[in-house]
Specification:
By secondary structure, the chain is α+β, with helices and mostly antiparallel strands. It has a single domain (2-17, 29-120), classed as Dimeric alpha+beta barrel (Alpha-Beta Plaits), CATH 3.30.70. It has helices spanning 31-42, 93-103, and strands spanning 2-10, 46-51, 59-64, 67-72, 81-90, 109-115. The radius of gyration is 17 Å and the shape is flat. It starts with a strand and ends in a 7-residue tail after the last strand.
């Protein structure tokens, strides 16, 4: 069993509002999220899930010769921005990809699937 981070990126500007209606009438854009959360929680495989605020609320901390520098905004300027994430145990990479497909119901979302290395846990 491996823990995977499912990183959810939005490919449209943070200034563009999220769609107020589902892509297809009668569909629930969060149904896949609810199903993955319920199934993973039932199997005790869900470590965390969170939706992040817009990039303009971010602060970035860097080390400089003069000390730490704090700047407004995200680390990189990009049209894609991190919307949220899951930390979830999966039986295999294929299982993690299946879960990513299940939560990727918005055509403006991209899901990055990456194994988590817990060795650095305090």
């Amino acid at each position: 069993m491996t823990t995977y981070a499912l990183l959810i990126y939005r490919t449209t500007s943070a200034d563009e509002p999220l769609p107020s209606t589902p892509p297809t009438p009668g569909s629930d854009p969060l149904a896949g999220h609810r199903a993955v959360q319920a199934e993973a929680d039932l199997r005790h495989q869900l470590h965390a899930v969170a939706r992040l605020d817009a990039p303009d609320t971010a602060r970035t901390v860097r080390v400089r010769a003069s000390g730490h520098e704090v700047t407004d905004g995200p680390f990189i300027e990009s049209k894609e921005w991190l919307v949220g994430f899951y930390l979830v145990d999966c039986d295999s990479l294929e299982h993690a990809l299946a879960r990513a497909r299940q939560i990727c119901g918005d055509p403006h979302h991209v899901i990055e699937v990456r194994p988590v290395d817990w060795r650095w846990r305090g």
